[in-house]
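In the present case, backbone shapes were mapped to integers, as reproduced here:
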Amino acid sequence: MIAVVCSSFIRRLAVVSGLWAVIACSAWAQEAPKVRFSTSVGEFVVEVYPDKAPKTVENFLQYVRDKHYDGTIFHRVIESFMVQGGGFDSSYVEKKTRPPVVHEGRDALAKGGPRNVVGTLAMARTNDPNSASSQFFVNVKDNGFLDPTLIPPGDPVPRFEYQGRVYENTPRANLVNAPQLFGYTVFGKVVSGMDVVQKMKSTPTGPGGPFPSDVPKTPILINSATLVK
């Protein structure tokens, strides 16, 4: 009788423990780091995903901790595309940055990370996929053409389709290293204040500083970027 009671108790304990584990894991999954941007046109908050793009997220958060974004502007705004900032101060002087971060776009996407859709946060870069440093952008339109391209298994890759063309028996390295297939690393999204971002995208633009176009005529200043506790 004692053995039966003990066995029943152990089973109930296991169920309860399992339930608490599920609850704890669920709570942990919801605790993505968040950053509040206070700008000259209002506030918005983003959350970032270290489980999808760990190096990219740490790079971004370190710039936040270093107060790098405070006093910078959104220097490139295209209403049907995105708003970009984090690199220049209000005098259009480019701020010094740390070495660039490795491109994690494909890895993030393969882990179920978000794509370049409205409201998502991605790293800006040059034509070099591994050149992202401090600048970021918020998509204000679904920009699927910016998504990284996942490479099918195999070497050579038996079949690969890109922009309507089919490639057969292509050496894997040719695809993995093709610059046009890297896309842009998405590492977070706006979780509140998207109306502020929408206000940004509609601001009148023109030339400014070293840029011939797409610069807000009334500067959009980041007063502060802070981690949300």
About this structure: The radius of gyration is 22 Å. The longest strand covers residues 82-89. The CA atoms of residues 73 and 220 lie 6 Å apart. The chain has a mean pLDDT of 90.
